[in-house]
Design brief:
46% of the residues lie in helices and 7% in strands. A hairpin with a 2-residue loop joins β1 and β2.
Length: 98
């Protein structure tokens, strides 16, 4: 339990999760077609009706250009992005896979 104020607790929240979610937010904001988001499953999920997204070339551009760290994240392929997300999530050695 983590105290967030007098008498309030947030059970199980870890800042590693926030960092990992921020990585995925960069992809979603600037390159929603990035292979690390849905990888090879995008076409299958679209055909099955689980997602409906316009083709990447018709998606609206992000509000502003990515900054330098965001650009480095966007340049990663799916495997390297997955490794980065894992390392951010596990940087204290307390990653719970189950």
């Amino acid at each position: 339990m983590y105290n967030i104020g007098p008498g309030q607790c947030r059970p199980g929240f870890r800042h590693e999760l926030a960092g990992t979610l921020a990585l995925f937010a960069v992809l979603q904001r600037h390159r929603s077609d990035h292979p690390a988001l849905l990888g090879p499953w995008r076409e299958l999920l679209t055909e099955a009706g689980f997602i409906s997204s316009p083709p990447p070339e018709t998606q609206p551009p992000a509000a502003q250009a990515p900054n330098i760290p965001e650009a480095e994240i966007l340049d990663l392929d799916a495997e390297r992005f997955d490794l980065l997300a894992y390392l951010v999530c596990a940087h204290h050695g307390k990653l719970r896979l189950i």
